[in-house]
Amino acid sequence: MASKILVIACGAIARELLHIRDMNQWQQLEVQCLPAELHNTPDKIPSAIKARLDAAVQDYSKVFVAYADCGTGGLLDSLLQPRGIERIPGAHCYEFFAGSEVFHQYADAEPGSFYLTDFLVRHFERLVVRGLGLDRQPQLMPLYFGNYKRLVFLAQTDSGENRVLAQKHADYLGLEYHYCFCGSEPFTTVLTSALEL
Q1: What is the pLDDT, as a whole number, of residue 4?
Q2: Does the pLDDT at position 106 exceed 80?
Q3: Contacts of 25 (CB under 8 A, 6+ apart)
Q4: Which of 78, 113, 77, 75 is nearest to 94 (CA)?
Q5: How far is CA 117 from CA 40, 127, 171, 186, in A?
Q6: Quick one: fold of 5-92+184-195?
Q7: Entry pTM
Q8: Are the C-beta atoms of 8 and 63 separated by less than 8 Å?
């Protein structure tokens, strides 16, 4: 057990993380995921990660947290830095999925962009529509999305089904649709560097 690396990850990136681990044969990585729904209450992310750390940290040679700041306002860093534990750099997963340069090109071109990943495209109804209560209170739509101009789908896989769904979600939100195929390389690069693999 002592030679294993524990990765505590957001459930929203679990599929991509496991794919990259298996593709690169990183057998020393053990992945434990927390529910993606925590993103609707980001103040709870640090305490959920702390519970995993307290339960497991002594059993691994290294622990890495596969979260960006994710809306915790620095609280995640306040938990991890005193323990010497690294996380994915940046404010959110969109940047590491797209790669910093590509993400900032999109953000600079249109600050009013709402981003989706493969996971969010597949779970849009549960996490966005029901998660934000739009199914029960559609009048909240302008409050949540009134300042957005476009939806950008940062795709990890080249799935025609996901592209159709993403367009449908853009139409539902009344946003212009943009597609960007990112693949897994930007995320692989981040992991390889952070884990020194």
Answers
A1: 87
A2: yes
A3: none
A4: 113
A5: 16, 12, 16, 13
A6: Rossmann fold (3.40.50)
A7: 0.83
A8: yes
